[in-house]
Structures are given as structure tokens and as C-alpha cells.
Amino acid sequence: MVELTLPKNSKVNRNGKTYAAKDGAENTRTFRVYRYDPSTPDNPSVDTYEVDVSNVSMVLDALIKIKNEMDPTLSFRRSCREGVCGSCAMNINGANTLACTKGMDELGNGDVSVYPLPHQPVVRDLVTDLSKFYEQHAYIEPYLQAKTDDPETEWRQSPEDRAKLDGLYECILCACCSTSCPSYWWNGDKDGKDEYLGPAALLQAYRWLADSRDQLDNERLDKLEDEFKLYRCHTIMNCTQVCPKHLNPAKAISDIKRMMVNRPDKKTPEKQAAE
Ligand code: SF4
Ligand code: SF4
Ligand code: FES
Hints:
single chain, alpha/beta, six-stranded mixed sheet, binds iron/sulfur cluster, binds FE2/S2 (inorganic) cluster, succinate dehydrogenase (quinone) activity, metal-binding, oxidoreductase, 2Fe-2S_ferredoxin-type
């Protein structure tokens, strides 16, 4: 089980508000939800909602019900409601996941705790600032790069080579993996210096390294070769355990390490010193 770690600006004041269910509600469930309002000094707190879950199948449905019927100030991101956009990623009962694909029937019988993604700056309530996460994604240059000057060249890919991207291209950049990784909590945000990129960015890095049409393997590996960007993964496996798309970032990271060791054109100390 992934341990619950509070967001960066946290010191929870547990004396939050309590919202009772409507009179007559028979099938209720208690939700304890992290609240952070940047416009008030009393932050953060945990509010309690007794939710009538008679017609609620997913945690996101319960949050929408709270917002529509009990407390319109509750803020959270969501869009597709189908596990496709990645925006409803949050920490539910101590594990990062997507609220829209987390079934109420998967939660056992106790209270349901809902927190923002761990160790990220909170903007408001369950909404975190993922700017650093997206910067790290941009760093790995997530697009096809070839060394040809001929714009008419068609880059074909065999079905076998295409199959090598399965388990990689499906990533929805929800950040569940990176924000559950202890090494990412400690090394993921250091003002650009000695920074670990985290499992999501590294899975995407491998997605392009594994693509038979991309010709920049060596340059891509150069960009990852220092003590921090790649090698701060200690194979703790939280990333793979929580990924709601059932991907395996830890394996992608070990595949990059293997490429790094086996490549003929290794980054030389001279090259490193010239950077
Ligand atoms: S690898 Fe999985 S958990 Fe990580 S960002 Fe992609 S979809 Fe989300
Ligand atoms: S396997 Fe690596 S990336 Fe995944 S949680 Fe562990 S340290 Fe983080
Ligand atoms: S709302 Fe899009 S993944 Fe949950």
C-alpha cells in the first residue's frame, strides 16, 4: 500500500466543516476531503461529507454530487469521466488513482479519504500545480525526431516495431506514478539542478527511444545521462503499482538503463565537461 503523504504546503487542521446527508438518506458514506483555500488563513483542513451514495458508482460521481448538492466551493479537476484525460488524478484512501475509474465497490467499508496528489503545490482543494511535471515532460522532447533533410520521406514502421510501443503510448500523463514515487518527492523539484525526472517523463522518454522511426537515440540518452535524471530511480515500484492505465514505468526505466549501458556512443567525460 502506498503511504499517504501530504501536499507540500500542508499542515492539516482536522477541525474542518461537517456536512450532513439529506434527511431520509439511508445509504450514506463518509467522505473526508482535503480543503485548501488560498484566500483564507485557516489552511488546510479536512471537511467531512455524509454522502447519499444510492446512485453513486465512482468516486468522481460522489465528488460531483458533493459539489452539486452540498458544497459548491469544492474544487477538483475532471473532464472526460472515462479515464482518458488524466485530469481527475488524486489520492483516494492513501493511493493515487483516477477518481472517475475508482469504483465505490473497491473502497471497502470505512470512510473515504480524498487528498490531492502528494507532494505537489496545492492551488486549491484537490487541484495541484503540475507545471514542474509538464516541464519535465517537455524536457524529454516527446515527439518524433529524424535526421533527414528530406521532408517528403515517409517513415514506415513494421507491425512488429509498432508493437514495441504497446504499454508506452497509452500513458495519459495523469501524474499518479511520479507523485507516488518517494525519489521524485525528494529529487523531483530542485530548480532544474540535479533533478530526477520521475517515472512519467521517463516512460515517455522510453516511448521515443523505443520508436523505430526516431533517430535521436544517442542524443536522447545523452540528455538523461547524469546522476539524477534517470539514476535516482531505486526500483521502489510505487509507480507501477498505482498506474491507473496498468503501465509499467519501472520497467521502462530499467530498459533505458540497459540502453544506456549497451550503447556504443557513450557520453564521454569531455562531452559532459563541455555542457
Ligand atoms: S505512466 Fe500511468 S500513472 Fe504515470 S502518468 Fe502515465 S498513465 Fe499516469
Ligand atoms: S520504481 Fe523508480 S520511478 Fe518507480 S516508484 Fe520506484 S523509484 Fe520511483
Ligand atoms: S475525468 Fe478524465 S481521467 Fe478522470
